[in-house]
Write a sequence for this structure.
C-alpha cells in the first residue's frame, strides 16, 4: 500500500474517507437539506458578494453573473431536489427465463471521496454545479477552484465553510501545485473541468489509482451557416453566444463556416448586431467583460497579430488595451489555415470566419479536427441539418441557436474524446458521481440447478437448448 502521510492534504482526505459511509447512508431528505442550504447561500446570503467578486475578477456584468452562474446552479439544485427521491430508489430490472427464481435491481451508491477541479471562466457554475451532483449522490468532496479568479474562490470557500463540515465538503484555494498534490491521493472519482492539455495530466494521475474520471474539456466548436439560414435570426444568437463572458466560454462558437454566397451578408449583419449589443465603444459597455488576466490577454493579442501576419482581414474590432485586458469584439475573415486562430481554441472575443462551397467540404473539415465540445448548425434546410449531424461527431449540437444546450438539465452535457469523457447535469451528473451497483437475489430454486456438476449427456443437451432458445 502506498503511504500518503507526507501529502499535505492527507489528513483532510482521511477525514473524508472516514466519513464517507455516514454521508453515503444519508437519505434523500438529509441530502436535500444540504442542497437547499447551498441554494439559500448562493441565491440570498452571498449573491451580492459573488457578483462583486466576479466583477473584481474579470468585470463580469451582474446580469451575466445572475444568468450564467447563480441561475444555473440554483436550477441544478431545484431539479436534483425534485428528483432525488426517485433517483435513489432501487431500480428493478427484468429477469431472464434462465434465472427464474431470482430478482434483480440497480442501486446508485456513492463513489466515495471525490475531487472537483474547476476552471475560472464560469467559476461558480463549474464548481458548485458538479458539487450539486456529488452531494445528491452522497459523496464527500474536495473542491479546487481556479487560481485565476481568486476573489470568487474566496467567497465560494466562505459559502462551503458556512454549510459543511470539512469531513463532508472542503474547498482549497491555491495555485496549480494544490491540484497537483491533491491528484496524488487515491480519490474514488475526479471531476475535472478545464483544458484538454490539463485533462491528460488529470487522467494520467487518476490512472495510478484507477480513480474514475469525468473530464469536461474544451476545443474548437464550429458554427456552420447554410445558405438557407435566416441571417438576422442567426446573428442575434451568434453575437450573443460569442461575446458572452467575453468569448471565454467552452461552448462559444470558435469559428464560423459560412456558405460563400452569403459571406458579405453575414459580415454586415454581424457588425450591425455587435454595434447594437455593445455600442460603438465596447470598452465603455457595461455588458462586456474583460479577459481574465495578462497571460490570456497576451495569448489572444498574439493570435490576432499572427492572423494579420498571414494577411487576414479584420472586419470588426481588432483593437485592445493592455492596461485593462480589453480586447474589442473582433471578426476576422480571409484567415490562413496555418494561422493560430484556426489551430488553437480561441477562448476570447475573436471570431474567424471561413467560407465553404459544398456540404462535403464542411464535413471533411470538421472531421479532420478533434471532436468538438459543441457543433452549431444554422439552416432551414432539414436535409443539410441531418447530413451534418449524421456525418460528424460532437459532444452536443444546437440547431439555429448556440450555448443553450448547456442549460437544459434534461440533456447530458459533456464532450467526446478530446473534448471530454463523461457527462454532467441533472440525472447524468448524479450518475457520474454514483456507482450503479447491481444486486441479484435468489428467492427459490430455479432451472439453473439442473445444470450444476457433475455434467452428463442430459445436461449437455439442456445447455445446448439454452444456447439455442434462451
Ligand atoms: P486549465 O486546464 O488551465 O485549468 C483548470 C484547472 O486545472 C484549474 O483549477 C487549475 O488550477 C488546474 N490546473 C492547471 N494546470 C494544472 C496542472 N498542470 N496539474 C493539475 N491541475 C492543473 O483551464 P482554464 O484555463 O481554467 O479553463 C479554460 C479551459 O477549460 C478551456 O479549454 C475551456 O474550453 C475549458 N472549459 C471546459 C468546460 C466544459 O464544461 N467542458 C467549461 C469551461 C471551460
Amino acid at each position: 500500500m502506498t503511504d500518503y502521510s507526507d501529502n499535505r492534504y492527507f489528513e483532510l482526505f482521511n477525514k473524508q474517507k472516514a466519513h464517507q459511509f455516514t454521508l453515503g447512508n444519508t437519505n434523500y431528505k438529509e441530502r436535500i437539506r444540504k442542497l437547499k442550504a447551498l441554494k439559500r447561500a448562493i441565491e440570498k446570503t452571498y449573491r451580492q458578494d459573488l457578483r462583486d467578486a466576479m466583477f473584481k475578477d474579470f468585470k463580469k456584468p451582474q446580469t451575466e453573473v445572475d444568468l450564467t452562474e447563480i441561475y444555473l446552479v440554483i436550477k441544478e439544485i431545484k431539479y436534483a431536489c425534485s428528483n432525488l427521491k426517485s433517483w435513489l430508489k432501487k431500480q428493478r430490472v427484468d429477469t431472464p427465463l434462465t434465472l427464474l427464481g431470482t430478482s434483480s435491481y440497480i442501486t446508485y451508491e456513492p463513489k466515495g471521496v471525490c475531487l472537483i477541479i474547476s476552471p475560472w471562466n464560469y467559476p461558480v457554475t463549474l464548481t458548485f454545479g458538479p458539487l450539486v451532483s456529488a452531494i445528491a449522490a452522497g459523496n464527500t468532496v474536495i473542491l479546487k477552484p481556479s487560481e485565476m479568479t481568486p476573489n470568487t474562490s474566496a467567497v465560494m470557500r466562505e459559502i462551503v465553510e458556512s454549510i459543511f463540515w470539512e469531513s463532508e465538503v472542503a474547498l482549497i484555494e491555491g495555485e496549480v501545485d494544490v491540484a497537483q498534490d491533491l491528484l496524488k491521493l487515491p480519490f474514488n472519482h475526479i471531476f475535472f473541468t478545464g483544458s484538454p492539455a490539463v485533462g491528460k495530466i488529470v487522467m494520467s494521475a487518476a490512472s495510478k489509482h484507477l480513480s474514475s474520471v469525468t473530464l469536461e474539456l474544451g476545443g474548437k466548436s464550429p458554427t456552420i451557416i447554410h445558405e438557407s439560414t435566416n441571417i438576422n435570426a442567426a446573428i442575434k444568437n451568434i453575437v450573443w453566444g460569442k461575446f458572452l463572458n467575453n468569448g471565454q466560454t467552452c461552448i462559444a462558437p470558435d469559428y464560423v463556416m459560412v456558405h460563400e454566397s452569403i459571406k458579405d451578408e453575414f459580415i454586415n449583419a454581424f457588425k450591425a448586431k455587435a454595434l447594437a449589443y455593445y455600442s460603438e465603444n465596447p470598452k465603455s459597455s457595461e455588458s462586456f467583460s474583460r479577459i481574465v488576466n495578462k497571460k490570456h490577454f497576451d495569448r489572444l493579442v498574439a493570435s490576432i497579430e499572427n492572423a494579420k501576419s498571414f494577411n487576414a482581414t479584420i472586419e470588426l474590432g481588432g483593437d485592445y488595451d493592455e492596461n485593462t485586458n480589453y480586447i474589442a469584439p473582433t471578426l476576422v475573415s480571409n484567415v490562413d489555415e496555418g494561422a493560430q486562430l484556426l489551430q488553437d481554441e480561441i477562448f476570447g472575443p475573436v471570431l474567424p470566419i471561413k467560407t465553404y462551397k459544398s456540404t462535403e467540404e464542411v464535413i471533411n473539415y470538421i472531421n479532420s479536427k478533434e471532436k468538438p465540445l459543441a457543433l452549431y448548425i444554422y439552416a432551414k434546410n432539414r436535409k443539410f441539418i441531418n447530413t451534418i449531424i449524421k456525418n460528424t461527431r460532437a459532444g452536443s449540437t444546437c440547431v439555429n441557436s448556440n450555448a443553450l444546450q448547456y442549460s437544459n438539465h434534461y440533456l447530458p452535457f459533456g464532450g467526446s474524446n478530446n473534448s471530454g469523457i463523461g457527462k454532467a447535469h441533472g440525472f447524468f451528473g448524479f450518475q457520474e458521481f454514483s456507482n450503479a451497483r447491481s444486486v441479484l437475489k435468489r428467492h427459490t430454486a430455479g432451472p439453473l440447478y439442473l445444470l450444476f456438476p457433475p455434467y452428463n449427456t442430459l445436461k449437455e443437451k439442456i445447455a445446448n437448448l439454452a444456447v439455442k432458445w434462451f
